[in-house]
From TrEMBL:
EC number: 5.4.99.25
Catalytic residues identified in the record: D39 (nucleophile)
Gene source species: Herbinix hemicellulosilytica
Residues of the Pseudouridine synthase II N-terminal domain: 24-173
Lineage of origin: Bacteria, Bacillati, Bacillota, Clostridia, Lachnospirales
Stored InterPro entries: PsdUridine_synth_cat_dom_sf, PsdUridine_synth_N, tRNA_psdUridine_synth_TruB, TruB_C
Protein name: tRNA pseudouridine synthase B
Length: 303
């Protein structure tokens, strides 16, 4: 049984669910999940969790991400990308400086209204299901974090801007580009989208599905699987004393004195998360330090 994460390069034309289905066929494993939906026309990094690693899907979804996108100015569509119906067209009379000033307004926290063509649920219904029925409903805005936006290229003849966006979870890039277009007064849509990073997973280490198939055939896929505990490599490491292994095997709380080793112990305060191993070095799970009880309590178990 494989347990771990494979950094997949999702190609255009596939849904994220398509990737999961194909991975189940390639690996002959049912317990597989993806870590954040990419639209069919988008491509790039899609970490896929296998076996026990499916328990970290929500933690990877929460990671910061980096995208490269092309914004086409002068057009507004109902999907906020080039696949939708055109709602408005306008002349484009903006220069690079105006685009920079508009872009900079979105750096930092910003209240974003999810697009109708999205998987966000309202009253139990996915927005895209309502949109396909020709319905549009009022949506509440959500705070998203834009850490940085860099203009990589501006083509004034084609009215296109290539951007690199570093952002937090839940950010819709096509909505961001739509909102930038609104500020510029001419509208804008997303022409292309490439996700280049999810947390520590970078596009340079991603694999096409065809490559995964080849590695499985050659028996070398193990060298391309990221172990679960590697995801938490930034957390302090705790190793149990052998006579207290049974505490973590049962998911019980433990004290610092029950450990043989604890890294960065001087910096561990209330709420801190640590990765816990038994005395033989087997990864057990993530524990949280409860300062009031002076104990480590189970947060997410993988044993």
């Amino acid at each position: 049984m494989i347990d771990g994460i494979i950094n997949i390069y999702k190609e255009k034309g596939y849904t994220s669910h398509d990737v999961v289905a194909k991975m189940r066929g390639i690996l002959k494993i049912k317990k597989i999940g993806h870590t954040g939906t990419l639209d069919p026309e988008a491509e790039g990094v899609l970490p896929v969790c296998i076996g026990k690693a499916t328990k970290v899907v929500d933690l990877i979804v929460d990671k910061d991400k980096t995208y490269e996108a092309v914004m086409k100015l002068g057009i507004v569509t109902d999907t906020q990308d080039m696949t939708g119906n055109v709602l408005k067209e306008a002349s484009v009379n903006v220069d690079l400086q105006q685009i920079k000033e508009a872009v900079e307004r979105f750096i930092g926290g910003y209240d974003q209204i999810p697009p109708m063509y999205s998987a966000v649920k309202v009253n139990g219904k996915k927005l895209y299901e309502l949109a396909r029925q020709g319905k549009e409903i009022e949506r509440s805005s959500r705070k998203v974090m834009i850490y940085n936006i860099e203009i990589l290229k501006f083509d004034p003849d084609e009215h296109e801007v290539r951007l690199r966006v570093d952002c937090g979870k839940g950010t819709y890039i096509r909505t961001l580009l739509h909102d930038i277009g609104e500020i510029l007064g001419c509208g804008g849509v997303m022409k292309t989208l490439l996700r280049t990073r999810v947390g520590n997973f970078d596009i340079s280490g991603s694999l096409y599905l065809s490559e995964v198939e080849e590695y499985v055939r050659s028996g070398t896929i193990g060298g391309h699987i990221v172990s679960v505990d590697e995801i938490f490599s930034s957390y302090p490491k705790a190793v149990m004393s052998s006579k207290y292994d049974k505490l973590v095997y049962n998911g019980n709380a433990f004290f610092k004195r029950n450990l043989d080793f604890l890294s960065d112990q001087d910096t561990i305060s209330g709420g801190a998360l640590v990765r816990v191993y038994d005395s033989r070095g087997v990864f057990v799970g993530i524990y949280r330090f409860d300062a009031d009880l002076s104990k480590f309590v189970a947060y997410k178990m993988f044993l």
